[in-house]
Amino acid sequence: MAEFCTLDEAIGRVAALAQPMPVEEVPLTAARGRTLAGPVRAAIPVPPFDRAMMDGFAIRAADTERVPARLAVRAATAAGERAAPWVGPGEAVRILTGAPMPPGADAVARFEWCDEPKPGQVEVLRRVRPGESVQPAGDDAPAGRTLLVAGTRMGPLEEALAKTFGVARVPVHRTPRVGVVVTGSELVTTPGAPLGPGQIYSGNDLLIPGWATAAGGEVVAVEVLPDDAEHIRKEIARLSASCDCVITTGGASAGDFDFIPGVLAALGGRTAVHKVWMRPGSPFLAARIGTCTAFALSGNPAAALIQFESLVRVWFDVALGRPVCPFPATGRLMHDLHLKPVKHTRILRARAMLTDGVLSVDASLSQSSGVLSSLAVSNCLVRIDEPDLPKGTVVPLRWLPGCAP
Fold first, then answer.
1. Degrees to nearest 5, angle at CA 140 with 137 and 145
2. What is the largest CA-CA distance in the chain?
3. Are 293 and 259 in the same domain?
4. What's the whole-model pTM score?
5. Number of Cβ within a 10 Å radius of residue 388
6. HSE on the CB side for 101, CA within 13 Å?
7. Is the domain of 209 the same as that of 255?
8. 317 with 295: CB under 8 angstroms?
9. What is the pLDDT of residues 148-166, one digit of tens each?
10. Could you list the residue range(s) of the whole structural domain that residue 143 is in?
11. Are residues 185 and 301 in the same domain?
């Protein structure tokens, strides 16, 4: 079984365990939350015609070289109607926002710039430049332009963009199926239920499924099990047969009731990572059981979350065609940092904020793996590879889901 590796080695090994999910094409209406497997290109130009951007009169700008310019109003056009006939010299068309510009006209004289001395006539009171209040066809993008790239997670904005450009179907990766197994005889799953001696309420049965869903997975099962090796083995065997990924929490270390390493070995798991030089979360396993990838995380919720963000998310990124970059941003420490001189990479929960245009990082929160509350007020994780860093040091940073500015 593989022993301790560095965080960077672990990232590489986890990435190697993943395979991109198969590609399928789905209707745009079924794409919410899915990850694009290829680019989405405009089916039509937007707008598909020259259109008025203000209420007013469609005119020839050259007719306003001398003002006031009196013009004959030949027609009226609203949004959704066919364009009015050709506009010749000395003519105008009453037009409303969104309506197609009539041929011959090259500008819109806004209502507030005009006077209507009598029906069928308009006086334009100021000069109007060509193109005034007109959006030309294809101004947003022409047909064929790439709108969204592979790896994009489809949300309401992305859906609206694709629909605006006439896109009916999009290529997406199949959503990874995820099973979660939370172990611990001390765990009580019902908040408010009486706690017996030595018992605590479980949190990983909410935390890990939520994080897996945010990473792009479909959680198909969540099981909370006592520390019973055979019970755990049967459940992991069942889930690994039908899931792309199984994530366990608890029992991943080397104590008397840490059954996960033995269970994975008994199931024929090919271990890629076993123990990482990182804090918190050194006890971490990544293995392959048939076509399923299994991850064993710490039972402490804070440590499990940090392991997920630093390592497990890498698997989801590869599976869904996203670039692997666990700490893609940087920030400057707001304070000196002094840690025990050990070889582990520290992953610290932190709060980052813009201060005078600089992203500043406060990592003075509680870093205990047994403390979850400080994560609730964090918005990022930072990677620390040295025990002593002065104020102002630039450190790698990863925003927690939903927290990026």
1. 100
2. 96
3. yes
4. 0.87
5. 11
6. 26
7. yes
8. no
9. 999 999 999 999 999 999 9
10. 23-46+139-173
11. yes
